[in-house]
Amino acid sequence: MYFRSQRKYQGDVSLSDSLDSDGEGSALSLMDVIRVDDDMLENLDTRESCQKVRRCVDRCLSGREAKVITLRYGLDGEPPRTQREIAAACGISRSYVSRLEKKALEKLREAMEQHE
């Protein structure tokens, strides 16, 4: 009777069962093979947040403000640039870039709070 009842568990495999071992004798388990990185959900959340910011930049900011924020924070896929680099590219002063950035960030903050 016992053997008949255990028959249904015959194909069960534990995630901690050893599959193989490397040259040093360390065991490789099934969990090591199928494990999902813990940061996957965090990466998805970050990607979603970036898309939300890009939409707000396009919708809420003037052309010049959007350009400054895009260049400053690398929203165009390029590395973030300094205020001095942005000023040279746009033909404006660094202090004006700073004022535009501050004003644009305030607008973005308000827009993001409204759409939470």
- For the biggest β-sheet, the strand order reads 1-2
Structural class: mainly alpha
Radius of gyration: 27 Å
The count of helical stretches stands at 6
Distance from N terminus to C terminus (CA atoms, Å) equals 60 Å
Sheet of most strands: 2 strands, antiparallel
Describe this structure in words.
The chain has a two-stranded antiparallel ribbon. A hairpin with a 5-residue loop joins β1 (18-21) and β2 (27-29). With 116 residues, it is mostly helical. It has helices spanning 2-6, 30-34, 40-60, 63-73, 83-90, 94-114, and strands at residues 18-21, 27-29. It is 61% helix and 6% strand. α3 (40-60) packs across α6 (94-114), α4 (63-73) crosses α6 and α5 (83-90) packs across α6. The mean pLDDT is 80. The termini are far apart.
What key attributes describe this structure?
116 residues; 6 helices; mainly alpha
Topology (elements, then pairings):
Blueprint: H1 2-6, E1 18-21, E2 27-29, H2 30-34, H3 40-60, H4 63-73, H5 83-90, H6 94-114
Antiparallel strand pairs: 1-2
Helix pairs in contact: 3-6, 4-6, 5-6
Short précis:
It contains six helices and two strands; from the N terminus they run H-E-E-H-H-H-H-H. It has 116 residues and is mainly α. Helix 3 crosses helix 6, helix 4 crosses helix 6 and helix 5 crosses helix 6.
